[in-house]
Amino acid sequence: MRFDNILLLSDLDGTFLNDEVKPVKANIDAVNRFAQNGGLFSVASGRPPQSALRYISECKVNFPAVTYNGAMVYDFEKKQPVMSLMPSDEARKIAYDVYLRYADKVGFLAYYENDLVTIKANEYSLVMKPFEALNFKEITDYSLFPNGIYKYLYVAQPETIKEMLAVFESEYAGRLRFTSAGKNFIELLAPGADKGSMMEKLVKSRPDVKTVIAIGDYYNDLCILEKADIKVAVKGAPKELLDIADYVTKKTNNEGAVADLIDNLEEILSGKAR
Length: 274
Description:
Elements: E1 6-10, H1 12-16, H2 25-36, E2 40-43, H3 49-56, E3 65-67, E4 72-75, E5 80-84, H4 89-101, E6 107-111, E7 115-118, E8 135-138, E9 151-155, H5 158-171, E10 177-179, E11 185-189, H6 195-204, E12 211-216, H7 222-227, E13 230-233, H8 239-244, E14 247-248, H9 257-263, H10 265-269
Parallel strand pairs: 1-2, 1-12, 7-8, 12-13, 13-14
Antiparallel strand pairs: 3-4, 4-5, 6-7, 6-9, 9-11, 10-11
Helix pairs in contact: 2-9
């Protein structure tokens, strides 16, 4: 089957990658087969471009990627950003004020183009050091954090994350965007910096794209699934994703969820599979 004019955007963690944070070979093979037959493939991830590239280097990526959970669109072929949105000065203050409430039990990090900066290298912030292909730095004076932040990240135990999410929802809704890419994480971004909105802007500039397929596994993927023509949830995803999905993969991320999607794409496009 030919896949001309079809764009497939895949989440990375929990979707394209297994629980050991490694790409599944079946996914790589299926993506390359998809691209060889005319399909457009890229990723929509919370990771920065350098980090994402480590996991898709064996894939034919022929469309710009949504990175930093929607703060930047990056073109891997041209090796440059296409568009980006950064949090405001107000968000910078809010991010720190909320951190201070939980400073003894949370990791607080700021993502830059090439650096990952933490205010305190503790057990939570250090979790991220090996996972992102960025220069890890500790700057204990927040006033010395440089400008150019794409997103803020909190890392903590799930019960602390739930408390913090309640704070953002009750006190700061509408003033900045907050999302969770996992039970141990909260991310703060600029309003409009989400996977779905950035995908929508990008596709408007590409008349060759006629159908958008998005696949994801967690709450931060809801925004892109909602705006995709075909919405795909990974087996085991939260109910909110399963409820809107046109197709739920039969395989988990460990078994090759993206390959499952591509293998069943003809039936999905015809509406025969769900």
